[in-house]
């Protein structure tokens, strides 16, 4: 998961929550008063407290003195995006679910494009899952039985 933090009047920052240190997770869990799995799920649902807490922990990597109370972004300054690995997994799931319905498939892929952090990786994942698959190789013909010597 990528948290996109766009402070007013500044360039967007991409904070990668896909790989966290155990110590960071422990701090996040204590601060949010929730388990890491629940926090990740809450982030995927757009929960501002979860996004704020994780973004703050990631920002502390480069700003160790940053206090939680001092990191108070506006609600529209935080947004969760899918990283390349998650994007591929979602593309595969979308194709498995809607592959036989071109209209629903196209709509679902458009939604995926809206939530991915890496548009290029998204397009590649879509191309990969929609590419024609090679059919299974044909069974080799059995060799003719040799006449037995009697």
Query: Looking across the biggest beta sheet, what order are the strands in?
Result: 2-1-3
* Overall form: elongated
Decide which structural class fits the backbone: mainly alpha
Distance between the termini: 72 Å
Contiguous low-pLDDT stretches (5 residues minimum) are none
Secondary-structure element sequence?
EEHHHEHHH
**Helical proportion?**
40-55%
State the major sheet: 3 strands, antiparallel
Provide the residue-averaged pLDDT. Answer: 90
In short:
The protein has 150 residues and is mostly helical. Helices cover 49% and strands 8% of the residues. A 3-stranded antiparallel β-sheet has the order 2-1-3, covered by helices on one side.
List keywords for this structure.
elongated; 3-stranded antiparallel beta sheet; 6 helices; mainly alpha; about 10% strand; about 150 residues
Overall description:
This protein is mostly helical. It has a three-stranded antiparallel β-sheet, with helices on one face. A hairpin with a 7-residue loop joins β1 and β2. α1 packs antiparallel against α3. The chain is elongated and about 80 Å long. The N and C termini lie far apart (72 Å). The relative contact order is 0.13.
């Amino acid at each position: 998961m990528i948290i996109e933090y766009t402070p007013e009047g500044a360039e967007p920052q991409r904070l990668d929550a896909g790989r966290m240190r155990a110590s960071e997770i422990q701090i996040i869990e204590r601060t949010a008063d929730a388990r890491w799995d629940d926090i990740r799920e809450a982030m995927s649902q757009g929960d501002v407290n979860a996004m704020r807490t994780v973004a703050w922990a990631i920002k502390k990597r480069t700003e160790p003195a940053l206090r939680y109370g001092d990191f108070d972004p506006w609600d529209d300054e935080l947004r969760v995006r899918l990283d390349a690995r998650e994007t591929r997994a979602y593309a595969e799931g979308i194709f498995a679910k809607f592959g036989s319905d071109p209209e629903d498939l196209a709509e679902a892929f458009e939604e995926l494009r809206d939530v991915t952090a890496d548009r290029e990786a998204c397009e590649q994942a879509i191309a990969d899952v929609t590419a024609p698959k090679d059919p299974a190789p044909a069974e080799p013909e059995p060799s003719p039985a040799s006449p037995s010597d009697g």
